TrEMBL record:
Biological classification of the source: Bacteria, Pseudomonadati, Pseudomonadota, Alphaproteobacteria, Hyphomicrobiales
Pfam entry (one): tRNA-synt_1c
GO cellular component: cytosol
Organism: Methylobacterium symbioticum
One GO-annotated biological process of the protein: glutamyl-tRNA aminoacylation
Stored PROSITE patterns: AA_TRNA_LIGASE_I
InterPro entries (UniProt xref): aa-tRNA-synth_I_CS, Glu/Gln-tRNA-synth, Glu/Gln-tRNA-synth_Ib_cat-dom, GluQ/Sye, Rossmann-like_a/b/a_fold
EC nos: 6.1.1.17
Protein name, entry field: Glutamate--tRNA ligase
Chain ranges of the Glutamyl/glutaminyl-tRNA synthetase class Ib catalytic domain: 6-283
Ranges in coiled-coil conformation: none
SUPFAM superfamilies: Nucleotidylyl transferase
Keywords for the protein's UniProt record, in alphabetical order: Aminoacyl-tRNA synthetase, ATP-binding, Ligase, Metal-binding, Nucleotide-binding, Protein biosynthesis, Zinc
ATP-binding in keyword set: yes
Gene3D superfamilies in the cross-refs: HUPs (3.40.50.620)
Amino acid sequence: MSIPHLRFAPSPNGRLHLGHAYSAFLNAAIAERLGGRLSLRIEDIDPVRSRPDLIAAIESDLAWLGIAFTGPVRRQSRHLADYAAARDRLAARGLAYPCFCSRGQIRAAAAADPPCDPDGVPHYPGTCRSLSPAEARARIARGEPHTWRLDMARALAEVPAAQAYTAFDPEDGERTVPVDPARWGDAVIARRDVPTSYHLAVVHDDAAQGITHVVRGRDLEAATDLHVLLQRLLGLPSPRYHHHVLILDPAGEKLAKSRGSASLADLRAAGATPEALRTRLREMSGFRKG
């Protein structure tokens, strides 16, 4: 049996806050409980919002908090060619297609009350799905901006109807969770500015790094449906998943720098110690040692 391998994977689009610290702490605690190891991945595919100073700040904050990682840090921005190759494999099988529609065009083509994905985004109406391969190639050759979308109907036709993943709780065993990828519609798997999306990159990286257990927030629980489908289509293994509670602000909103949530740097400046913060995180998690 392979050694359990977990990862903490922040995006460098702002300073880490208490919610990030909670997730990092929980990953480290579960890795220790399982006798496994924990790696750091920087999910920096956004060429505008991902900045070197924020990456350095993430590493500094995690070191201050006392979270130890093994192996080299994986930077997604250095593996864009790998994601493009995965996208191209799906496209070659007719499972992905280029979409040239702007957001305005998509809104204009949508039905009056369209179905929406779990993030509340209306399903793509399929405008570009019927483009001939020749027309699509010609438009790409002309340099027209485009995303790549998963053809959900074709994708589901290629995998068994019954799909599920294994959810685990270090305190309470495992269970099987059925998935419904269709609720995501023809999801974007590659953006206009980079040859991938979060969904495609994270699925590829979990397999490339040999990740066996994924511990992340409940805000990503619904995305697991799409990730399981992509894993099946690309012939990749599925990790076990644990979706932890989110740390909310007094108004009941998810912590975010855009809403003024205090960063770890703010807490450090106010006199917080890593020991006190780790104690607070352990109490918040209810996670027992041993």
